[in-house]
Amino acid sequence: MGWSYPGISIEDLMKLIKNFIDMLILASGYQSTGRLAQWDSHNIKRLLKWALFLENVSKGLRSSGDYEDCVKELDAALHLLTLSPVFPQGLAHLSCTTLGRARDLVLEHLIHPLPLRDSHLNAIMSASIEMDLSEHKRIDNDVLDAYLEKLMTLPSKGLSLSESRNSVEDLNLSTPEIVQSGKHDSSVDGDFTESAIKQLRKRQQAVSYISVVEAALENLWRTVGKNMHDELGNTSSSKPMNRSACLIAEKLPHETIVWNHWRSKSLSYMLDKRTIRLISGASLICSAPKDQWALMLKQLDISAESDDFCEKIELLLLGCVADRWSALIEHLMSVPYESLNISRLCHEVFNVPLRKPVNLCVKEGLVNPKEKSVVDYMESLLNGQTNQLWKLSPVLAAVAIPAWSQLFKSYLHELECQLRGDSLSTRTRQCHCTADAVEHHRECEVGERIWCVYIFHMCGCDAALGTSVIT
User: Fold this and answer.
1) pLDDT tens digits for range 309-323
2) Where would I find the H helices in 301-458?
3) From CA 445, how far away is CA 431, in angstroms rounded?
4) What is the pTM of this model?
5) Burial class (CB within 10 angstroms; exposed 0-12, middle 13-18, buried 19+) of 104
6) Which of the 8 DSSP states describes residue 305?
7) Is the pLDDT of residue 352 over 50?
8) 369-382 vs 290-299: helix crossing angle, rounded to 10
9) Which among 443, 216, 228, 467 has a CA at the least distance from the CA of 333?
10) How far apart are CA 277 and CA 38, in angstroms?
C-alpha cells in the first residue's frame, strides 16, 4: 500500500534516524577518531529534542491501525539498516517500538558508558531540567511550582537515588526484552528528569554490584594466595622465594615448590582486576561481526614496537577464551601435582601437534567461527613475530592459542628454539640458562611456558578449552 503517514516521508525519516544513531554513538563517549566526545547542556538539549521528535513520530504511527503498513515498512527499513557490518551492535534491536523510548536511549548512552565526571553530570541534569521546564511552560503558567511538585512524587515511585537495592532483574532487563514482552517503559510518558534519575539509579546499582564482585574477587585471591604460600612454606605474598626454599632434587626438577609457584603466578594473572576488565571488553568487541571489530582495531594504527600493540594482542587472545575463563581457572586449581621432570614435559608438549589427541586437535571445519576469525586476524597481525607473545603472561598464551592453529605450532617452535638455544632465537633469548642441557630450564620462564601448555593441553582440559563442544 505504500507509506501513508502525513507527517514525514520514509526517506526523510530514515535520514533523521541515521543521524540520530550517529549522535548516540557520540553520546557513548567517543568520536570516530577514538578521542573523547565532549557534551555540554546545549548539545544534550538538542539531542533530547531530536529524541522527542522521533518518539512523537513513533507514537503517531502506532496510535492508529491506519498506519500499520507504515510501521511494517519502517521496521523493515530499520532491520535492513542493522544488517550493515559497521552498524553498532548495541542498537541491533532498533525498531519503531524502540524509537518510542528514544529519550531513554539517549540518556542510557550519555550516563552509562562514560566516566561520570561532575561537568558531564551537570550538563545532563541541566539539559533534562530545562527540557522539563520548557514542556511545563506550555501547559502551566506556574512552571516552577508544577515542576517541583512533580519532583516530590519521584521517591514514591521508587526512583530515588537512595533506593539502590532493587532486584537484579530490574537492572538486567535489556531493551530487546522490554520490546519483545510488549512492556512499555513508563518513563517514556514521564519527564526528562524522571528518565535521567532512573538511568542514574541503574548506574548506581551497576557500580554497587561491580564493587561487591571486586571485593569478592580480592578476598578470593587473598585466600588462594595464602593457601599457595602456605604450601610453599612462605608467609609473604610479595617476597620472592629464597634459594634455600627452592632447592629441587635432581630427579624431580618440578617438585611441588616450582609447580605451586607457577600455578600461583598464573592465578595471579587470571584473577587480576585488570585482566577481568580486559575480558569484559574483549568479550564485547569479539561479539561484533569481524568486519566491525577489525576496522576498529585497524583505526588504532599501532606500531608493532609499542606497548599498545602488545595490549592489542592480549585483547584478542582474551576474546578467544572470555566465555570460558571461569572454567579455565577451575581447571588450573584442580590439576594435581605430577612429578615430571622438564625433559618429560618437553617430550609431551612438543609432540602435541604430532600425536593429535582427541582433546586437542579439532578439525578446522568444526572450529568455532568467531574463534577462528580472531585467530586468523591475530596471525596476520603478528606476521611471524611470535616473540611478541613473550611480552604476555605464559598462562594466557597457553589457554588462548588453539592447538589447531598455525600460531600454536609457531609458538611451540619458538619455545623449542629457546629451550635448545638455536641460532634462530639467540638474539632474543628469554632466559639466561645454558643451552647445553634441557634440564637447566627447570625454573626459568621457558620452563614455565612449557608447563602452562602442558597443564591446559595435556591434562584433560577439554571443556575449559572448548574442544569438546563447538557451538
Assistant:
1) 888 899 999 999 998
2) 307-321, 325-334, 342-350, 352-355, 369-382, 394-400, 406-420, 445-457
3) 7
4) 0.58
5) buried
6) T
7) yes
8) 30
9) 228
10) 24
